[in-house]
Amino acid sequence: MFYHDNDLQYPVEVEEPDPRFAKMLQEAIGGVEGEMRVCLQYLFQSWGVPDEHEEYRKLLLETATEEIGHIEMLATAVTKNLEGAPTQLKDEMTDDPVINATMSGMMPRQYLSSGLKAMPVDANGNPFNASYVVASGNLAADLYANVMAESTGRLLATRLYEMTDDPGMKDMLAYLIARDTMHQNQFLKAVQSLGDPEDPHDHLPIPDSFPDAKELEEYNYSFLSTMREKADYEAPWTEGMSVDGEGEFSLLHELDLEGGERSVPKANPETHNEVKEKGED
């Protein structure tokens, strides 16, 4: 259950409206790095967390709800950058909205479909794609996915920060960047809290519930080099103890693998994939 408050989570002010920047802000709403992605990701993850892990469900729900507020902030910023466009620009758009919107760097749909409002799309106008959402059902895997989502979201926010000189937009983005800092740290801390408190990597590899004896253990800690010429080299992932503490890293050359013969059976005649033989009707 969600409850709405009329106040924005953080003030959104635009001193110099910029329709071009409004288009860029759309990426932070409906893009792969955007707030719609993380909001839905955390919601769907939380709804699948069992009761025994209630503290993680609360973590995900709290953050997902916060992200709804971020979407509202960004949508407000887009509207203020569009609605506050110079009078001359809006007058010209009235005469020929499609051409003028295109020439000014806006998305025509922001005028034609939303009436100068934010939309659930990215900076190229592509509708939000729910395939961006990661909710595997495995708590450890999902928490790592959340760290990645917050990292790329923070990258996007810092790039948007560098694209504007508007003090209000910089202030809003500075807030969002700060929240991404916290979210990365909270999810990393949550990862560390999984399993044995004496072993911060007790949950690895994911899923750790799969029996070790059922995987091919001669390959599970060998880094595979696919170079055409064999060459030994030392790296943190080719020697020493593995991160999960259950094996020793080693270097394996693809050239040393026995491999297997590639064999593809004849196509089913009903698929009509085969080329007709000479003499066939």
UniProtKB/TrEMBL annotation:
Residues 258-281 are annotated as: Disordered. Pfam families: Mn_catalase. InterPro entries: Ferritin-like, Ferritin-like_SF, Mn_catalase, Mn_catalase_dom. CDD domains: Mn_catalase. It comes from the Archaea. Belongs to the manganese catalase family. This is Catalase. It comes from Halopelagius longus.
